[in-house]
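pinned: reference chain
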Amino acid sequence: MDALERGIDAAARRDFDAAIRAFTEAIEANERLPLAYRHRGHAYVGKGEWDKAIADLTKAIAMDPTAAHPFGNLGYALMRIGDYRAAISNCTEAIRIDPDLAGAYSCRGHSYLRLGEWGRAIADFTRTIGLTAGFPRLTSNSYSQRGYAYGRAGDFERAMADFSEAIRLDPNNGEAFYFRGIGYQHTGETAKAEADLAQARELQYKPQSRGPHM
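pinned: its structure tokens
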């Protein structure tokens, strides 16, 4: 097993430190170089080391701009550092290469949320929902995010329906309970609001910096 294969095996086990060491060995040996940078960048994403991920994925794309996943992962890393426009650009390129890459739609949808572009976020999460059928937790997260976007766009009926579907798919989705609780506050259904917000606390959900309002 060569260094690249050892790195891929370690990354599959989520041993990102071992993966990075192996991919670095592959890079030093010039072993299938674009793949080595691509996979090391993915491993840095797994560790949350965004600047290193961005550097490696940028190199991988410069060497081979034909693969979708490096663009998608680069978009995700850029989103995590708050460069939402660049994230959208890279995710869009990933989608152009592979129109069924669910993660790229999700990442772009999150970036649109942060920019307050509710309609575009709704469209991307709708696409993600369609692509993640069979993966209840992933689909639940997309329903929750789409529900948030609907709420911010003023469509509370669809927002509440999405939060309820998110909870049906994943009863441990604290975010969906939290925002459905906020929705019930809007409609004056106090008992339901208190029950959902209590469940969100039980699931240890903490509102993110985008705020509690829909």
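why pinned: The mean pLDDT is 94. The radius of gyration is 19 Å.
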